[in-house]
Amino acid sequence: MVSAALLATISGVLGYALAQQAAPPPAALAYTPLSSPCPANLTLVRSAGGKNPTLSPQESAYVAERRRKVLPGAFKTYLSVVERSADQQNIPLPHYLTTILGGQGHLPTMSISMSGGGMRAAIFHAAMLNAFDARNATSADAGLAGLLQASTYTHALSAGAWTMLSMLQANFPTIQDLVFGTDSGPGGEPTGGWNSNFGIATISSNTTVEDDFVEVLLTEIAGKFQAGFPVTIGDVWSRALARHFTNGTTPSNFFATNVTHGAGLRMSSIIDLPEFTNHALPFPTVTTDTISTFQNNSDLIPMGISPLSNPIYEINLFEFGSFDDVLHSFIPISLLGSQNGTCVTNFDQISFVQAVSSDLFSSDNTSTVSLNDSLLGSVVAVLNENFEQPGIRLDSAAIPNPFMGIEPEKFIDHNQTILVFADGDSDGENVPFQPALVKERSVDVIIAIDVSSDIADNFANGSALVVAQERVAQFSHQYSFPPVPSSTEVFVAQNLTTRPTFFGCNTSPDVPLLVYFANGGPPLGQTPVTNFSTLVEAVPQQQVQSIMDQVFDIATQGIPINGVEKDPKFPLCLACAVADRTRARMGKKREGVCETCMTEYCYN
Length: 604
Ligand SMILES: *[C@@H]1O[C@H](CO)[C@@H](O)[C@H](O)[C@H]1NC(C)=O
Ligand SMILES: *[C@@H]1O[C@H](CO)[C@@H](O)[C@H](O)[C@H]1NC(C)=O
Ligand SMILES: *[C@@H]1O[C@H](CO)[C@@H](O)[C@H](O)[C@H]1NC(C)=O
Ligand SMILES: *[C@@H]1O[C@H](CO)[C@@H](O)[C@H](O)[C@H]1NC(C)=O
Ligand SMILES: *[C@@H]1O[C@H](CO)[C@@H](O)[C@H](O)[C@H]1NC(C)=O
Ligand SMILES: *[C@@H]1O[C@H](CO)[C@@H](O)[C@H](O)[C@H]1NC(C)=O
Ligand SMILES: *[C@@H]1O[C@H](CO)[C@@H](O)[C@H](O)[C@H]1NC(C)=O
Ligand SMILES: *[C@@H]1O[C@H](CO)[C@@H](O)[C@H](O)[C@H]1NC(C)=O
Ligand SMILES: *[C@@H]1O[C@H](CO)[C@@H](O)[C@H](O)[C@H]1NC(C)=O
Ligand SMILES: *[C@@H]1O[C@H](CO)[C@@H](O)[C@H](O)[C@H]1NC(C)=O
Ligand SMILES: *[C@@H]1O[C@H](CO)[C@@H](O)[C@H](O)[C@H]1NC(C)=O
Ligand SMILES: *[C@@H]1O[C@H](CO)[C@@H](O)[C@H](O)[C@H]1NC(C)=O
Known about the structure:
2 domains; binds 2-acetamido-2-deoxy-beta-D-glucopyranose; twelve-stranded mixed sheet; Lysophospholipase; hydrolase; 11% strand; LysoPLipase_cat_dom; globular; phosphatidylcholine lysophospholipase activity; two-stranded antiparallel ribbon; single chain; 22 helices; alpha/beta; phospholipase A2 activity
């Protein structure tokens, strides 16, 4: 990533700049957190309670308003798309289905759950959201449009969080505009889209260009260091990701040092955007894992670095913390970084949250040699050269621990001043199910999108679901999970990753029904383009389009007929799944096409 030459010179350069108090770049100023004493009457930590923890009042209020003002119309739009598909095929819809989706009862609570998997996953999720987007006429013709607008929640980890947060912070543009940019943004300026032609941290094979780029990233985090906060590879990664997944970078200013490149855009500022105040956005949550000195390592899955018993953290637009009863505590997201009566703002940067959830570098730190040989090694060396921070782990993302002293018997980090974060997949649960399982959210349907690289050809094999089921078994007093096979062999043998599969069709309506879409193989006899490595950072825009086109077929194919033709009734089947929990609660039997669909699409 960076060369030995840079290593030799950079500390001199940075040290000189800092000593001379040279004007820091605007991104460094915008990235620096601010500290002040907390107001005397502030209670920083909210205890969410134990077994059945409570949501923040702000989340409850947002969801209630969304349900009242937005969801009835959104479901009507979705229903009209489903009815059109049914009419074209001359298939009558069960009366209960049109009643439920028409809003004459309790509207289903849906969450869309997006996995990690680098640029492969980021693009895959964008294409799935496009297929679910009411604004896209092609998606309406395919019978899926409107699911995105009708969802109550979106949950994401790692690259899923790149897609989700980039969409939200851009005020919910169409997916094409989000990914590819537009020529006429506000004020007639072009917007950059994801700038996917450029790599993220690895920009060039020309070491001069690459070293200059990494040096700029380091100058951008220097202000945070000088303000007394730990800076790690998570911060370097944050500044690199910001050039793709937050506003402010275009192909023409990509290397400019006089713009902020998204620094200063905060999680807590998303709530001021028009689409949020209109309640038009599904309520978003990012999940991430910790690694801790006192974790129970007998509980690690193979290759995992965060045991299943560690708390899973949630970062949403209002709060940071964990619902797991080993912690069950939250602080306001706007005060992320606060500790001991010092209140911190501007720490909750969007790109930092994207980095916290996607810091996969700690996995390379299995030994000094493997660390040294990895991408991480050279960055750790320059961090060490420039920022002296004894005792700080540099391979991960660091957040001052606001939960010290809480649950000394159960909380592994109760006496640690820094919480150490690694990729949301560090426990092997690469699909973020946990937020949807919190009882008070009452999620009926989880649409899970799994773009894990499990096998040699970078396709998924269901391991994220196997692991999720294992974790829920450890927290069974708190959460319930629909039954899934306990081994990936079954997923593979039964083709559960190469076609959409519904899980939990016959369990209690209090357990969410799971609609599973995996990147498990190419659709309809096509040549695969969706299975490149998680480490690929740059994807030319033309290639992005062809990936999105193939994912559109993965979203819409259903169980292919003779392996090559889309199942035309799949949109109806998906609608049946969306309404199924409400149907059960109404005491109705499955009827007509829904009965057929559930037989074909349900596992067991
Ligand atoms: C704390 O005190 C300030 C004024 O000093 C007041 O504006 C604020 O509402 C108080 N907050 C709470 C939670 O009581
Ligand atoms: C709608 O989705 C299709 C399929 O991915 C895509 O080709 C098209 O550009 C999208 N249209 C708009 C207006 O975003
Ligand atoms: C990001 O840019 C979009 C326009 O492209 C704008 O609508 C939105 O408000 C911006 N977001 C933030 C957080 O400034
Ligand atoms: C690397 O980039 C620098 C700066 O743009 C340029 O001067 C140099 O010729 C490039 N080296 C090679 C081998 O292309
Ligand atoms: C940044 O610098 C470029 C040229 O170096 C200039 O065209 C541009 O206006 C500057 N932008 C800002 C925000 O100062
Ligand atoms: C660590 O995990 C193992 C396996 O789940 C369990 O048997 C053991 O009781 C745990 N140890 C502690 C101290 O919690
Ligand atoms: C908070 O208190 C702990 C323990 O006393 C200390 O190690 C840490 O540095 C303090 N943090 C801040 C921001 O003062
Ligand atoms: C780390 O790698 C560098 C060269 O890349 C090598 O000189 C050094 O000996 C290595 N250190 C260890 C501990 O492996
Ligand atoms: C690598 O992991 C060890 C703990 O296993 C930790 O002490 C060390 O700080 C890590 N190295 C880096 C560079 O973060
Ligand atoms: C911190 O807590 C762990 C148990 O959670 C304990 O083993 C360790 O001794 C504690 N360290 C200190 C310095 O109190
Ligand atoms: C599925 O992927 C996991 C890694 O995520 C691997 O350990 C397991 O062996 C794979 N199972 C099969 C059947 O290939
Ligand atoms: C899985 O798919 C393969 C090839 O598409 C097919 O031959 C096989 O019968 C399918 N297995 C099951 C259990 O559906």
